[in-house]
Request: fold
Amino acid sequence: WPREVKGYIEKQGKVAKELLFWYVTCPKCARKYGKTQTVIFVKVA
Reply:
């Protein structure tokens, strides 16, 4: 999904300088729910 995010940013006419990933659930909760949700923050130029 990093490529998808970079492609979206480029379509907006901007350049992605840095990507930061934040995992919404802890490893224990991720095992319980069966998936890990991730939020991607992008620093643009």
User: Anything to note?
Assistant: The chain has one domain: 2-44. The mean pLDDT is 91. Residues 2-44 form one domain.
